[in-house]
User: Fold this.
Amino acid sequence: MKRWPQRNPDRVIQSALIIFRWILALFFIAAGANHFRTPGLYIAMIPPWMPWPAALNVISGAAEILGGLGLLVTRTRHLAGWSLIALLVAVFPANVHVALLGHMPGTHFSPVTLWARLPFQAIFIAWVWWVAL
Assistant:
């Protein structure tokens, strides 16, 4: 009887790590690019008590792009990971602001969706931690 070859669990985990790192990097690069494609959407999310919304949009968009690219480079991965975690914490007030408003300008998300997306910040932080740190 012919047996299937045994898979090395460490190799499977390492392969999954690489695949999930690429997925996350592409997500951050695309999300960062969207800050420049549709800035009004992101600027409208920034709470009114935060200064310079247009500048904050550019800074966060650039940080997402650079962080995503940084995840793909071994030498910068650790710094990119910590930077993306800091960014996810920093943008959380904007996500709470939108949930409290009950609508995200420029979209058709329901209030339930806006509240449901808040826990995803923690999931993204854990994902960055896993693939970068």
Notes: The chain has a mean pLDDT of 94. The helical segments are 9-37, 39-45, 53-71, 77-101, 111-116, 120-132.
